[in-house]
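Entry for the shared binder. Reason: the reviewer on the internal report wants the predicted structure included alongside the sequence.
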Amino acid sequence: MPSRNFREVSGRTSIIAFFLGMAIIIESVLLGRSYAFYISILIFSFFITFLWRKTPRPWIYLTSIAASTPITLFKQQYACNVIFAFWYTVFNMRILSKLPKWLYIPLGLAVIGLISSSLNWISPGSIVQNIIRQGSFAFNFLLGPIILLPVIYVRMSKSQDHEANIQGLLFGLIIPTTLILIIAKTFGTVANDWEASLHADGLAEGFLAYRLGKVIISFSRTGIGFVLASLICASTAIAYSGVNTKYRLLAGACLISNIFLLLATGSFGSIIAVLCGLAAIFYTQLRKVRITKVITSITVVCCIVLLVYGLSPSSTKKYLGKRYEHRVVEMDTDRLTLWSRAIDYLVEHPQGVGLTFTVGEVVQSHPHNDYIAYLVSYGVIGGLAYPFLLIGLFIYFSNRRRRRIENNNAFAIHLAGFGVVVAFMINSMTDNIAVNRWYFNMIWSLIWYCYFCSRAAQSVIVPDEVTEKTAVAETTIPQLK
């Protein structure tokens, strides 16, 4: 049902938006990092945002698909979707007032952190260069998830066409990313075979990067595990909800593909994150469907995992065996050592050092923990912006005591958002997603799309007592014909 506050357009325009978005991805594969690609995207994003600024759905579809572009713009690596968001903010500054007020808190923390860390990253010899570098980092990793990506999706909170919303989730976010990942894995050529073979007793799985056209797509387990965990949770939420069968089948195909890719990477942190995300989804489902249906859904997912594992190449099985031995049998504590080094570095620089993915002056290492990485980068105060943002989203998706989502499509989107947020929170404890801007922006796009679509379905909050009384009345009062 259209809302008078949300301008719906014909399906043809949304189809055009889908193909334009896919054209951006294809163009990036064909042109790679070239000024021809950079300039065309800047010009195109400017004009299409200006033309479609008053037609939310097609522009949002297009921008969502742009989040799956496997390369970024210019040397400072600006993600394509945040470029669209920037133009829209320029054309409509009032949109900032429509954002949830609780976002002002992480934004304030981030600004404080950026200022305090500048004491360390601004050096007299290269002030302009450092400002440009750290400014681009802040644009992608602070303003991106806190302001710019919410700007893209905030208008979805007015959309009451929940079937169209789930189409956007599938065709705008899940399917494009899944397609390009499975195509790269299947048809791409290994770009770092020798380097990857140096790891894990000669087993290259989990360290590979694939060349697809003129782009390199990383399948390193510490990076791609995040996005695969998110895609699995979102696909499961749709596949096992009461939505249209064709959407469930498409989501099921994406689910199988992403399970295969996750097993191939052998990321135990992401596997644990997936289990937590799925647990959140199925637990929430218990409030709407019978427990037997939830148990059946869990059983089917487990069978799919076993089937995919059984059909996986022998190299993947061997690699998973090594990973199991390393993480479970030997109980390797390398993460604890890395976290301890990062905390010591934070104590030395409590005001932050500017965005960095390594710690240490002489011997450098990755923290492998996004929460610690943000603390090291933006200090004790600024580093709180990232966990505050995730905790705020978790509270929203988990607090359904006074909210009723009756529409199956809307409920599936809510489950998808909840599962992704939980998986993201867990995975952020063991790895660094921010090293890959594509995966980082895609996951945050997924989260904010689900958040605002869910708000649209919860625009009317009904107290539990009123709902129960209404239900009793409906069973006792005969219906008038």
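Summary line for the report: Residues 90 and 214 are 32 Å apart (CA to CA).
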